Amino acid sequence: MDNNRQKNVQTVAVHVDSQNVTGFGFVAYTNSRVEKLRDEGRYDAAIKLKKYLRKFLNYLGKNEVPFKDFDALLMRNYHTWLKNQELGRNTISLYIRNLKRVYKLAVNDGLAADCNPFEGLDVSYRVKKYRYGLTLDEVKRLRDLDLSGESEMTVFARDIFLFTVYTKGMRSDDIFRLTSKNIKNGQLTYRQHVTGKEISLPWELAMQEIADRYKRKGSTLLFPVITAKSPHEQWIQYDGILHRINYNLKKLGEKIGLDYPLNLTVARHSWESMTKSVSISDLL
């Protein structure tokens, strides 16, 4: 076993010991991956993996399964059990795919046999048939909605949706990192948090009008909603705000007659599917 792999296994063993797990198997290893994600500040991924593991534990009815017993029969039975829970095809695929990802990591760490317990299981993602993306008319109807009497969060949700479209599908985690330093000489320039790619686009009056509504004395952030100091607390704030934005967008989507849930993903797809054929000036 090479030095890097030995180091990984030792790290996993520390996580396992810290959780007082008897015996070393798939569940203990998955918990170690959850802890590793938390250590890296990837809290959303950690919470999701923990959720997938809880579902698997519900099926198992016990707290551990040795790697030698993690076989094709177990996975086929789990797949059948999930279908009997009346879950959607994509949801079932998500649960299975994440177990598969963890198993491959265990193989790479030399802890599991290099075989395929998932052979024969179709865990591909099926693209949903409903439309994801507003038309130009729908964007304008959302923009022109009379929200007098609505909550501040409802107005904020609409503003962030529009800002996302106006900025050609900027992700919310990038929006909440923007400061006044990102705007210079009529251009908005920022580096994507996920990819590291630098993006530059015209800073339009409509963007400025939205940002002006959320100025806060003593803060350079355009949208000063993430105020915590520690990365974990920042993630908790971000996750909470994102849920409230999407909850209010769903209500706004119903107001303009949409037959599918409105959320920030729709805002990004709106730029991709609709605004490639129009200019920003058509939207403003």
TrEMBL record:
Keyword NAD recorded: no
UniProt keyword terms in alphabetical order: DNA recombination, DNA-binding
A UniProt-annotated Pfam family: Phage_int_SAM_5
Highest rank taxon of the organism: Bacteria
Ranges of residues in domain Phage integrase SAM-like: 26-113
InterPro entries in the cross-refs: DNA_brk_join_enz, Integrase-like_cat_sf, Integrase_recombinase_N, SAM-like_dom, Tyrosine_recombinase_XerCD
Protein name: Site-specific integrase
Source organism per UniProt: Bacteroides gallinaceum
